[in-house]
Amino acid sequence: MDSFSKARFLAYGKWDYTVNKSLYRNAAIVILVLFTGTTLLTFLCNQSFATIGIESKVFNTYQFIGWLHNIAQWSVAIMSGYLFHNMVAKNTRIMELTLPATIKEKFWWHVAVNIGGTLAVCIVGYIVSDIIQMLLSLIFNGADSVSTIIPAIFTTNVSSYMREFGLSMKFENEVSYGPDYGIALAEAFADCMQKLLYVAWVLQIITIAFYSGLFSYVNSRKYRHNIPLTIVILIGLGVVILVLVVIAIVIMSVYFSTHTSDFEASLASIEFATDLLTRIFTWMYVAFAVEVILSVVLWAGTYRNYKKASLLNK
Known about the structure:
Number of strands: 0
Number of helices: 11
Mean pLDDT: 81
Distance between the termini: 27 Å
Strand content: under 5%
Largest sheet: none
Structural class: mainly alpha
Shape: globular
Helix content: over 70%
Order of helices and strands: HHHHHHHHHHH
């Protein structure tokens, strides 16, 4: 029974769905409510800003998409905390461990439902949100304001937007930056952002893999109360990273305070500023590479822990 059997996989899935039908249904409802609620709130906020003259369609669109991405990311992460939900109660734990299906078949069913199913619900959420925002735009702003957000989810061009921002940048300092400094710096930032956006979906998948891996790994170690515990772990990691960032800023501030003239002269150079931006984005890619490694380790550990599960471990 070591080989993967589609029949056993589906038979086990039928049992799991019967046992956890209410969990999956309620999770889908909550996710869709979050998508629709965020759509309504975002539209109302944008309408309020527009009435007082603060409006940017490009910014509003990507801010809206960003919120939807966060909902999708955290929905997958939280549902990963329910990956081995059958192990909580004694009767379902016995069934989970004794049903005639391989560990591999059971494991991939949980991944397919909790992660694949959640992603499918999120895709529906994106579509529903897009329809709602188009209807609201039609009702309140007229047919000319109606546009879909779907293309912006996959592709974007920030160059013109950032150049417009660069034109409005003013540098008032004893060092003369030159009239084109703001434009050059904005265009350099736009170029880095554009390269990042080309692989935005890959980076999003990496982030989802890391968060879902962390939640599923803690779930494989502790079946009860694992989601709050994982959130506490994430908060702890965030605090550690924040402390390290603050220490780095303090060290740089001390260094620059003792080399003020040299630093200002370097900063006034467009080449130095654009190179600094490139280095920052390079370190972002390094951070994502670390996430890939951690994701592989966490998911491998999750599968290993599930293979070792027994009727007695908690």
